[in-house]
Amino acid sequence: LTQDELKALVGRAALQYIEPGQIVGVGTGSTVNKFIDALASVKDRIRGAVSSSEASTARLRALGIEVWDANEVERLSVYVDGADEIDPRGCMIKGGGAALTREKIVAALADRFVCIADESKWVETLGRFPLPVEVIPMAAQQIARRFAALGGQARLRLKDGAPWVTDNGQHILDVSGLRITEPLAFESMVNDWPGVVTVGVFAHQKANVCLLGTAQGVRTVEF
Ligand code: DER
Fold it and tell me: Could you name the active-site residues (predicted)?
């Protein structure tokens, strides 16, 4: 099975967590795009979605699924999203798709976070994937120096040679060289640094379930 087929497999498998009449929390990325395509096949059974990015909103609307503002819902039963890395505790590195801030906001509304990922995302310890951090532009270098003090190398994410600007109008640092053995403490520490909008460690908003696409089929891991 190709990586794309594994993503489609888990994207479809996530439908088992969707109940009729629900508003579904929807993440961002190529694996979530497979889930959105699968969701379209049951769109008459759901009430709509709350989206974590302009990209996912566009895809949902193009498929005829109503998109609600996060401020219009009190709670979501389920949030479905991908990950760049997920560890044995269900903690994740996210933000490869630059949507980490809204992803964490929508995940915070949900009773259950269902992570859908191909097996390449499963790691013992977070940190091989460069950690995305959304920052207020004027704080970027100051924050980069704080990561350097921890042995990390922070690079400003660029798009066509200019700083990448997120849906929220901020910049992103990608930090390599980190080994995040205590995700909860690490997320809290970085959250406290002035100028940090969101750090791409999802430990406080960790996954409750992971549908892992493997050559042998979908492996369901509960955390
Ligand atoms: O940016 C994100 O957080 C995405 O969910 C990312 O982590 C997974 O994207 P992918 O499904 O395209 O690998």
Answer: 103 (proton acceptor)
Evaluate whether 39 touches 18 at the Cβ level (below 8 Å).
Answer: yes
Q: Of 4, 10, 28, 118, which is best to mutate to test ligand 1, by the most ligand atoms within 8 angstroms of its C-beta? A: 28
> Is the Cβ–Cβ distance between 57 and 51 less than 8 Å?
yes
Residue pair 102/167 in contact by the 8 Å Cβ criterion: yes
**pLDDT at residue number 4:** 95
Cα(51) to ligand 1 centroid in Å equals 14
> What are the catalytic residues?
103
Can you tell me the ipTM of this complex? Answer: 0.97
3-state secondary structure of 109: coil
The model's pTM is 0.98
| Contact assessment for residue 117 and residue 211, using Cβ atoms and an 8 Å cutoff | yes
Strand order of the sheet with strand 67-68?
A: 67-68, 48-51, 23-26, 76-81, 110-118, 209-214, 217-222
Q: Whose CA is nearest to atom 5 of ligand 1?
A: 82
Closest CA to 116 of 38, 197, 20: 38
CA of 121 to the centre of ligand 1 (A): 10
Q: What is the CA radius of gyration of the chain?
A: 17
86 alpha carbon, distance to own chain's centre: 10
The residues of the chain scoring below 50 in pLDDT are none
45 alpha carbon – ligand 1 mean position (Å): 26
CA dist., res. 152 & res. 134, Å (int): 16
